[in-house]
Design goal:
Layout (H helix, E strand, L loop, with lengths): L2 H15 L4 E5 L2 H4 L5 E2 L5 E3 L11 E5 L10 E3 L9 H11 L16
Parallel strand pairs: 3-5
Antiparallel strand pairs: 1-4, 2-4
């Protein structure tokens, strides 16, 4: 129905309004490419821990300000705050159990 793309494009516009110059993350180019994302390697940015030349087709980037990444090269490192502490993950699993079971469905239009 296109809701995901609408939310993504809206979020990218808000990020641009807040002054963000680029966005990089892991994703599927078949979906995110429709919103202007490209392989981060095009910008000379490698995914952390992967040797240069290794397949990182999941690592995507989009300039929100044209030319923002000109001359930028290097390796992306995930910020420490993105990693869950093991005790928090255990607590979350218990919290998840309080929700009713939902069957995972594959609906028309889903990539996978």
């Amino acid at each position: 129905m296109g809701y995901g793309k609408l939310l993504l494009d809206y979020s990218l516009e808000k990020a641009k309004e807040l002054g963000f110059g680029a966005v990089c993350f892991e994703g599927n180019i078949d979906f995110y490419g429709k919103s202007g994302f490209k392989f981060a390697s095009k910008y000379g940015i490698r995914y952390h821990g992967l040797p240069e030349g290794e397949d990182a087709s999941f690592f995507l980037c989009k300039e929100l300000i044209l030319g923002y990444l000109n001359g930028v090269t290097g390796e992306y490192s995930t910020p420490e705050g993105y990693f869950a502490v093991e005790k928090d993950a255990i607590g979350f699993k218990e919290y998840e159990k309080t929700f009713p079971f939902k069957e995972k469905l594959k609906l028309p239009g889903q990539l996978f």
